[in-house]
Amino acid sequence: MQPETAMQYETAQILAAIQAGDTPAEEFAHLKLPDSYRAVTVHADEAEMFDGLASRDKDPRRSLHVEDVATPELGPGEAIVAVMASAINYNSVWTSIFEPVSTFSFLRRYGKVSELTRRHDLPYHVIGSDLAGVVLRTGPGVNKWKPGDEVVAHCLSVELEDAEGHDDTMLDPQQRIWGFETNFGGLAHLALVKTNQLMPKPAHLTWEEAASPGLVNSTAYRQLVSKNGAAMKQGDVVLIWGASGGLGSYATQMALNGGAIPVCVVSSPDKAQICRSMGAELIIDRAAEGYRFWKNAEEQDPKEWQRFGSKIRELTGGEDPDIVFEHPGRETFGASVYVAKRGGQIVTCASTSGFQHSYDNRYLWMNLKRIIGSHFANYREAWEANRLIDKGMIHPTLSKSYPLEQTGQAAYDVHRNLHQGKVGVLCLAPREGLGVRDAAKRDRLLPAINRFRNV
Ligand SMILES: NC(=O)c1ccc[n+]([C@@H]2O[C@H](COP(=O)([O-])OP(=O)(O)OC[C@H]3O[C@@H](n4cnc5c(N)ncnc54)[C@H](OP(=O)(O)O)[C@@H]3O)[C@@H](O)[C@H]2O)c1
């Protein structure tokens, strides 16, 4: 298609430079940045559009728009990145259904931090917390990255002006998730990031494969592996909810990789098969088992917790989980606390089915169990998680990719749990399969990279 506008022409020039594969840094630095770019947005004046509907019936295809927005001004320590591909995370689902709160409240708060952050407080929100692409411009004070660098971005945005964030950047009082609590996210042709979000793109992966692990892989790393989370060790029994889903598919690989014993919970034979293909042997199909942890909206059923615990022991030869990898929340949390081993850990990063958890505290204190809260990952943890991908020790779990224009459908699939692993989004990349720079390494790892395809 011939470019019709200046924006389309300039975007085409950027894409051609990336596709060439050997464009020098100076040329990237001289490419004109378009004044506007294509992006997936939600609108502030639509934040009430789903009022009165059940969560399940709130349809991201209605609230997500694909439109041209103004290119933001570049600040110190920042970069503008040409986004080749991005991915759907559950946070984009939350944004699209305006739950638990509209993300415009985050943008308003961020806009008050400084003169520069005021850029983020707009009547539209460019969403998305993953990307793979190429650096086009860097702001003042950036030395480590330059135009032309092929990168992925993790989604931790910090200011680090307070002392609290300097041991663990996740503890920075100004910690935010880029593309969720900040504007100019990754589901777009361009993105604005802080350069301490950037990491090298693994050379053996396509753009869409490289974009897909970021948020969930880093989160699973901190939650399960890092000393800030469960500090998993060899031989640990790890109960993993949603083991073929976004977070769970990485947690399962990390458990196997680290010599632990994953017990994978899924909801269909296809998902069980995916877990087997990753190398897991102990799998529970929660749908086939028909667990009913709640008798009604108020009361849980300890007999069902016991039945679940017995199934775990049957698979493990009588052992209880050292670690429970929690994220479904309200529906499963009582069971998770019950089945964890004496002295074990329940490490949680989410509450997909409801954030008011209840559990029988006697099982926690009498058995000396611990509940640990975990949220995303600091730069070091995200870097380590990306390094595992680069080394071919952990693999992307991409099952399907959509073009940018169909991001609403992609988010709908994740919202309705119709997907496997990760769902990708092609941004500037005109088709799947582009961006591989190390074909020999890819050939070696291909069966593992393709495990989630066409399931
Ligand atoms: N704090 C953080 O930094 C962070 C980071 C990433 C994600 N999250 C949150 O973590 C949650 C999961 O994210 P994700 O990317 O893994 O999503 P996902 O791709 O949808 O996978 C979650 C899986 O959990 C299982 N599940 C869903 N509801 C369940 C229920 N009621 N009972 C038991 N299992 C259930 C489903 O697997 P089966 O149907 O096969 O059982 C589903 O595939 C979301 O709420 C997300 O916002 C938080």
Largest sheet: 7 strands, mixed
Query: Residue ranges: pLDDT <50 for 5 or more in a row?
Result: none
User: Helix/strand/pairing class, anyone?
Assistant: alpha/beta
* Alpha-carbon distance between the two ends: 33 Å
Instruction: Name the average pLDDT.
Output: 97
> In CATH, what is the class of the largest domain?
Alpha Beta
Shape: globular
**CATH-defined topology of the largest domain:** Quinone Oxidoreductase, Chain A, domain 1
Number of helices: 16
Summarize the structure.
This protein is α/β, with parallel strands linked by helices. Helix content is 32%, strand content 19%. NADP nicotinamide-adenine-dinucleotide phosphate is lined by residues 89-91, 215-216, 219, 241-242, 244-248, 265-267, 271, 286, 327-328, 331-332, 349-350, 352-353, 375-376, 414, 417.
Give an overview of the whole structure.
- This protein is α/β, with parallel strands linked by helices.
- The chain folds into 2 domains: 6-216 and 377-449, Medium-chain alcohol dehydrogenases, catalytic domain (Quinone Oxidoreductase, Chain A, domain 1, Alpha-Beta Complex); 230-373, 3-Layer(aba) Sandwich (Rossmann fold), CATH 3.40.50.
- The chain contains 16 helices and 18 strands.
- The chain has helices spanning 6-20, 25-30, 60-63, 90-96, 104-111, 207-211, 214-225, 246-257, 269-278, 286-289, 302-316, 330-339, 361-365, 379-390, 407-415, 439-449; strands at 36-43, 65-70, 78-87, 124-126, 131-138, 150-153, 156-157, 176-177, 190-194, 198-200, 237-240, 261-266, 282-285, 323-326, 345-348, 370-373, 398-403, 422-426.
- The strands form 4 sheets. Strands 3, 5, 6, 9, 10, 17 and 18 form a 7-stranded mixed beta sheet that branches.
- Helix 7 (214-225) packs across helix 8, helix 7 crosses helix 14 and helix 11 (302-316) packs across helix 12 (330-339).
- The mean pLDDT is 97.
